[in-house]
Each structure stands twice: as C-alpha cells, then as structure tokens.
Structure of Alcohol dehydrogenase:
Amino acid sequence: MKIRAAVLEKIGAAAPYAQSLPLRVQEVELDPPGPGEVLVRIRAAGLCHSDLSVINGSRPRPTPMVLGHESAGEVVEVANDVRDLRPGDRVVLVFVPSCGGCVPCAEGRPALCEPGAVSNTAGTLLSGERRLHIGETRLNHHTGVSCFAEYAVVSRRSCVKLEADISFAEAALFGCAVLTGVGAVINTARVQAGSTVAVLGLGGVGLNALLAAVASGAREIVAIDLNEDKLALARELGATMTVNASDEGAATAIRTATHGGVDYAFEMAGSIKAMELAYLITRRGGTTITAGLPSPEHKFSFSPVSLVGEERTLRGSYIGSSVPVRDIARYVDLYQRGKLPVNRLMGEQIGLADINAGFDRLATGHSLRDVVVF
Ligand SMILES: NC(=O)c1ccc[n+]([C@@H]2O[C@H](COP(=O)([O-])OP(=O)(O)OC[C@H]3O[C@@H](n4cnc5c(N)ncnc54)[C@H](O)[C@@H]3O)[C@@H](O)[C@H]2O)c1
Ligand SMILES: [Zn+2]
Ligand SMILES: [Zn+2]
C-alpha cells in the first residue's frame, strides 16, 4: 500500500531543520505483513531525543530510514500466524522487539533481547525483512517501529496491547518516555520510599523519572536542567529543590543541601557534563544511573578509587529495564489513578508536515513531549 512517511535520507543535516528538512514527508510503499507481523495504523507518535540523535548523527543508523519509535495505533491486519491480536485492537509499540527465546528474554530482560538488538542495528524488522520501499530502494526501519508514518508493519513482538481507555496521544508516551523514565526509577534503581533522588535533564524521559520518584515516595528530589521553565514545571510536579546545571556552584549546593549527595542520581540528558555532575552529587554508597544516549565517541571518566572507597554503583538503564507487557499496563493504571500524571509532560500536538520544526524545538531543550497525531 502507499502511505505518507517521514524519511531521513542522510544524517548530519544542519539546523534549523525547518529549513534543511532532514525528514522528507513523502509517499512510500509499505508491503503487507509477513509471518509474525502486524499492520498498524499509527495514530500518535512522540518526538524523542533519540530520533534527534539519529538526525544529527550522534546515534548512527542506516539510511534511508523512516524515523520514529514512540507510538500508539490501531491494528488493521495480522499475519495468519498471529493469533493474539485482531484488527481493531489498540497497541503501544515498543522500540526493542523481544524474541522471547534468547537468554536475556528468558532472564526477564527483554530490553536486552539479542535478535532485537541485531535487527534494530541493521534497520530491519525482527524477521530480518524490510517492508518499506520507494520503487526499488529499500528503506530501513527505525527500531522495528518507524512510526512517523500513517501505517507501519511491525513484528508482533514490538506490540503491547492497550486495554485502557486513554487517548492515542497519551498512549504513545508510554512506548518510550514513560517506560524509560519511570522504569529507570522503579526497575533499574528500585528507589525506596524515604530515599533521596536527583534527576538531571528534564525532557520526556527525565520528567517521567521525576514523577516516578514522587510516586515512589522519595523524600528529597533535586531536579536539574539548563532551562528555567523546566525547573519551574519540576517544582509543580513535586521536585523539592531545583538547580540550574549552568550555575558554577551547582554540585556544591546540591551536596550541601543533601548532606553529602543523593542516594540515586539519574542522568537523563544524554550529556557528558550532566553525567559528570550526576556522579559528583551521588553520595557515598549511592547509585548513579544513566539512561542518556550520547554519541558513542563521547567518553565519561571517573576515578575508580571513588567507586571502590565509597562503594558507589554506576548503572545503565535501557528502556527502563522494562518488561513492557507488564510495565505499560502498570504505568497506565498509575496514570489513570492520578499517581503518574504523564499528561503534564505533553507538548504540542502537530501534523506530520511540521515534524522538522518539532525537532528544532526539541533541540533547544525548551519543548515538552511533542506528538504527531494522525
Ligand atoms: N535509555 C533509553 O532507553 C532511552 C530512551 C529514550 C531516550 N533516551 C535518551 O535519553 C535522553 C533524554 O531524552 P529526552 O527525549 O527526554 O530528551 P529531551 O531533549 O527532551 O530532554 C533533555 C533535557 O536535558 C536538558 N539538558 C541538556 N544538557 C543538560 C545538562 N548538562 N545538565 C542538565 N540538563 C541538561 C535539556 O535542557 C532538556 O530539558 C537522550 O539522550 C535520549 O537519547 C534513552
Ligand atoms: Zn525514545
Ligand atoms: Zn530475545
């Protein structure tokens, strides 16, 4: 079938993107689903910094590629062998398909699915196939999702059925920002009530970590960003202290206020500077967690003696160490009960034609989670 999709032809276009137009909204061909696959009508797709990192080259992926990895939509058609989804079902798409059979999947760590990582890096679906093309030119899939498009063919294993009655725009956020930010707090760190937390970088991911820290009963929550509007929002959402990362004395002020640092510092900015600050403000015996995805060329250094002498922990968190089938339903439930007000992080709802300008706004650090609605 012919669909409209936002195609990234090559990486590294100069900003502003509203002028250089790295994403070309054009007509592309979408082949029908193969075995184990599903055709989804995309209804909402969020703009995440990880998309921006593909556009600007910090997260290299094969091109041409139909971008987008955070979305919700409606099942239109399923392959014969897919028996647990039907046309009309609503789904949230997850940006790592989990095969269910590899060692990480068997260990309950589907975020680390090995075939999922291979197909995501190659730009294919979990099957190894590409279903998108323009004439003879095959287009790559973005993390098996490619949701900046009217329709997507995805693996069944990229879909989580959505039972709750929430809007598609709300549901889309659960596919990346919520899974990643909330999961980092609940699954990766297992923050306990009464502990102290810092969140560095208050985008879609970091603000979700903040909400999860509030929901988990953290006693003190330090929110850190470069942007004063984000800090003001963080205070409304439950931060007990806000700090502008550009302040000279930021680290000292936080260490003083928290009596030597926080139990858990979450780096959610994707920046080495934020990572360094996160490590500095983690207390003796504390844990520094990062969900940021800076360019692979950027390095972070620390002194191993602090790791040892202070019994520190440094951890990465991918998709919030989530089990998406379990966690999306849980987080949606918390949202509906008012305990995780993720709607407060929603930015503008835009059309596919305005997607490049949306990425300009994201690059400034000012926008909240903008969502393309179809
Ligand atoms: N681990 C995962 O599974 C996963 C999933 C999604 C996104 N990510 C990554 O998480 C990061 C955040 O994504 P997002 O979509 O929320 O981004 P975003 O652009 O919406 O937000 C980033 C925020 O960090 C702030 N910031 C920038 N430099 C800072 C600094 N030095 N100190 C403090 N704050 C700073 C910006 O002002 C902005 O508010 C990105 O690196 C993204 O690629 C990881
Ligand atoms: Zn994302
Ligand atoms: Zn697997």
Q: What stands out?
A: The pocket of nicotinamide-adenine-dinucleotide (ligand 1) is lined by residues 48-50, 53, 176, 180, 200-206, 224-227, 230, 245, 268-271, 273-274, 291-293, 317-319, 362, 365 (CB under 6 Å). The chain has two domains: 2-162+341-373, 181-317. The first strand starts at residue 2 and ends at 8.
